[in-house]
UniProtKB/TrEMBL annotation:
Organism: Deferribacter desulfuricans (strain DSM 14783 / JCM 11476 / NBRC 101012 / SSM1)
Gene Ontology biological process terms from the UniProt entry: metal ion transport
Entry-linked Gene3D superfamilies: Nitrogenase molybdenum iron protein domain
Keyword Transport: yes
Keywords, in A-Z order: Signal, Transport
Cited InterPro entries: Bact_metal-bind_prot9 (IPR050492), ZnuA-like (IPR006127)
Protein name from the UniProt record: Zinc ABC transporter, substrate-binding protein
MF-aspect GO terms: metal ion binding
Family as reported in the entry's similarity comment: Belongs to the bacterial solute-binding protein 9 family.
Keyword RNA-binding: no
Amino acid sequence: MKIKLFLISLIMLAFTYSGYCLKVATTLFPIADLISKIGKEKVDVVYLIKPGEDPHHFEPTIDDIKRLQGVSIYFAVDKRFDSFALKLAKKVLFLNDEIKSNNPHIWLSFENMKQIGKIVSQKLCELDNKGCGFYKENYDELLMEFNSLENRYKFDNVKVLECHPAWTKFLAEVGITSVGYIKKGREHEPGIKTLNRVINLAKKNGVKYIVCATNDKNKIFNKVANILNAKIIVLEPIGGYDGYTDIFKLFELNLNNLKKDINE
């Protein structure tokens, strides 16, 4: 019996070591998927905000805290966005500080995601030196895919208004100029003077499109669109469900929506 138990223990130990992987965490699906593409089978990625949840009002639950047990590093977005991570993980890296971005929507940009990918591969190398070549190779593939996708979509002389300033950098990367935004943030309600200024600016620039996110729900956006006789283009900011189960698909579907609505 003792020999049998010893053999069972050896087998379980072998499975434990053969299946060993780093456990890391982040807040949102896009960054989690980026980490997964770099770490692949060597990394177990946990992300907290479920598809459809509003990240602006997210609070971690007890189950979320349990899921973070054993995490080696937490890739946080922004201290204004997910400072709760400091209380939940021993090692937290705020990505917006690393890439020096003032806009918390850092995942909505080709350039930002390339920089974040490089940072992630470097940190994984620090945590797992033996797998460093593996992570760097996967990052190089990620970089090529982003470059290929970005180069396939270019717009010419298109100006838009944003519901709130989440897409500015992403739009600029494909040749679309954002002349301004209607709301500064979720909790911000623009006054009459602000609205008049934004509307006049949009008219001056010949804006025919307003870019909003799927979770932008406010009657004021439709009112501004009616005044400008502008079309609202709705983009998906986070994904993680339906056809948006891959970071490249998330970018591509949003670009296809822009192309379709602008060319109509």
